[in-house]
Design goal:
305 residues; alpha+beta; 29% helix; globular
Length: 305
């Protein structure tokens, strides 16, 4: 399918704030199509803009970071929209973009999409929690433990490139943060119970752009990938970080891992969490995460790019 109309949802506050200029470049990649942008004014505006753009477009584009993409994807799921989705990475980490498209340049992909779209299914996660949270869906993933703290530190390091800030923040949290006491079950079968440095559940392979947190995850595999990392000494903590950057995290003996369609995370003491790189304000006592297979369509060029 060659798109005649492209609708973009542009978050002007994402990353370094150059999303609007990236939209101009996006429009140039579709010389034969009508390209329209909705500049969002806040998180509440994103789902409204996404549904409106998807309803009148052959392709919808999220111009922003991982959080913007999550909001757009969640809106498409709720609206049961089949309009294929593309991403212009305008955030600091852009982990979801890398999960979907690897290291391909988004401009080359956009030019390929202008001549034909191959729409492929992508699973999305659903969250039911106590207390309830506003982030009811995720694309990249849900974590409890050190990443929540690392996000706060990375925000204070906004003068640094995103991947560098996330690396320093995660390394600091791995050394300084206290573990969280949790139990984790996959498809109602126990995976882990006790103190954990990190619990991660999701479909996204990368976190902080450079960390292969769930290295076996692939777009469209229709499953949730879950892991728990036990507390270790300083030497092993640094080894875990190196393993994650090399895509070998699951080989470490401190890591418990399994895949399934539902994951339950519970804690007697509520734990801090984040969803797709967005901190959740309220700690959670429990969360039941389930996969929604083929929830949205993702756009790839028909030439196989």
């Amino acid at each position: 399918m060659k798109p005649d109309r492209v609708g973009a949802v542009v978050n002007p506050h994402a990353g370094s704030g150059d999303a609007a200029s990236l939209f101009v470049t996006l429009a140039e990649c579709f010389p034969d199509a009508e390209v329209d942008a909705e500049i969002t004014t806040g998180p509440d505006h994103v789902p409204v803009a996404a549904v409106e753009q998807a309803a009148r477009s052959d392709l919808i584009v999220a111009v922003g970071g991982d959080g913007t993409l999550r909001e757009v994807a969640a809106a498409l799921v709720e609206a049961e929209s089949e309009t294929p989705l593309f991403v212009v990475p305008a955030g600091r980490g852009n982990s979801t973009y890398r999960h979907l498209y690897g290291d391909d340049d988004w401009r080359e992909l956009a030019r390929g999409l202008s001549t034909g779209i191959d729409a492929r299914p992508l699973e999305v996660g659903r969250i039911e929690s106590t207390p309830p949270v506003s982030q009811t869906h995720f694309v990249l993933g849900f974590t409890a433990g050190l990443f929540r703290s690392a996000l706060d530190t990375a925000e204070r390091l906004r003068g640094l490139p995103g991947p560098v800030a996330y690396l320093l923040a995660t390394a600091g949290a791995a050394v300084a943060d206290d573990p969280v006491d949790v139990s984790v079950a996959v498809d109602d079968e126990p995976l882990f119970e006790g103190p954990a440095r990190l619990v991660a559940v999701g479909g996204g392979r990368y976190r902080g752009s450079d960390f292969e947190l769930l290295p076996e995850s692939r777009p469209g595999d229709g499953t949730l990938h879950a892991l728990a990392v036990e507390p270790t000494d300083l030497r092993d903590s640094l080894a875990l970080l190196r393993s994650a950057r090399a895509g070998r995290l699951l080989e470490h003996p401190a890591v418990s891992y399994r895949t399934g369609t539902t994951v339950t995370v519970e804690s007697e003491a509520a734990v801090p969490v984040e969803v797709d790189g967005t901190p959740v304000d309220t700690p959670l006592e429990s969360a039941r995460l389930s996969v929604v297979p083929a929830a949205v369509s993702v756009a790839y060029p028909t030439d196989g790019g």
